[in-house]
Amino acid sequence: MAGLLKLGRGIRPEAAEAAEAVAAEAVKERKAAEKAGEGEGRPVFDWRVLIPLAALAVNLLVHTLVPVSPGYRVKALPYFTGFLYVLIAVFGFYALVSVFRWKQREKLAYKSWFFAAAFLVLGLYNLITIKLNLIPSLYFPAPERIVQVFITDWFFMLRCLLYSLRLLLGGFFLGAFVGVVTGTLIGWSQRWNYWIMPCIRIVGPIPSTAWIPIALVVFTRATDAALFLIALGVWFPTAVLTSSGILNVRKSYFEVSSTLGAGTLRNIFSIALPAAAPNIFAGLFNGTSSSFLTLMAAEMIGCKFGIGWYINWQRETLAYSQVYAALIVIAITFSLLIKLQFRIRNRVLSWQKGTIRW
């Protein structure tokens, strides 16, 4: 009986691996067949690519047929209608291209329900603002007012964004560098761990924004204080996760490397840091979120320019359409930076794609 159980336990992983291999091979054959079909001029149509267009058509129909609420005191603008036409043109072109390209077809078909839901939520917001006037238009402007900001105030917002990115990237790279160095020291050397780790445990958990009053006193310029605060927010998670990654590397790797004649620096740069790379990237991702929060807080309090300063300025003047537009810019920028980090991680850690899923 024990032998049978042992045999059964050995079969299950092999069966699972075989099933995964068969499924992967089927996917490859399907994609190859689709590619071959495209090469022979046989287009493939997936009805799901039309779902976002249907949602946009519903929005356009409701926006056109439902009249503006009599209680809506602000003059109606044509920007939301034009925005819907642009989206219809973009997704219509994308749907047409997807007929001949399998990669675009798979992406659009997979995201189709999400896009449709997002467009319907946008249409619902437009309905309860300008059409039904159910919420205060001063604090919740209609979508056409937000689109107007991108048309009329885009250059000034772009200047503010570039100013903020200069601060953000400067503080991020400074904090990332110091964090990797600190994490390497405390993960590699017990002596450095003895002196630095207590400081990290005391200073690190304090939010970077809590240091704003002290930073504004210590540094003569608000931009220098913002750089320090952003670097501090990136430094803590990067240092902790870098040290954790190095401490979890098998000691046998270093013993074999040292036996072959490698020195301390060779062990650190050839074994410790590459093995800790997943932890380092995780720390950088956490530091990116912290750096954005710190940047917004620092600009709202001390800096005289930037996207955070822009939001605070427009809030004080009750221009909430500009506030919402700036928040959209921040969301898009943050998403692009995170996507860029994932691309870099995928390239650097390509040797781990078989063992780590992302």
The CATH superfamily name of the largest domain is MetI-like
Number of domains: 2
CATH hierarchy, class of the largest domain: Mainly Alpha
The helix content, as a percent range, equals over 70%
Q: Could you tell me the number of beta strands? A: 0
CATH architecture level-2 label of the largest domain: Orthogonal Bundle
Using the coordinates shown, work out and report the CATH topology of the largest domain.
MetI-like fold
Low-confidence stretches: 1-16, 36-40, 354-358
Rounded mean pLDDT is 83
Task: Note the gap between the termini.
Answer: 40 Å
Instruction: Output the number of helix runs.
Output: 14
Tell me the series of helices and strands, N- to C-terminal.
HHHHHHHHHHHHHH
> Could you say which structural class the secondary elements and strand pairing correspond to?
mainly alpha
Strand content: under 5%
**Which shape, going by the Cα principal axes?**
flat
Q: How would you sum up the major sheet?
A: none
Radius of gyration: 27 Å
Keywords:
358 residues; mainly alpha; MetI-like fold; 14 helices; disordered N terminus; disordered C terminus
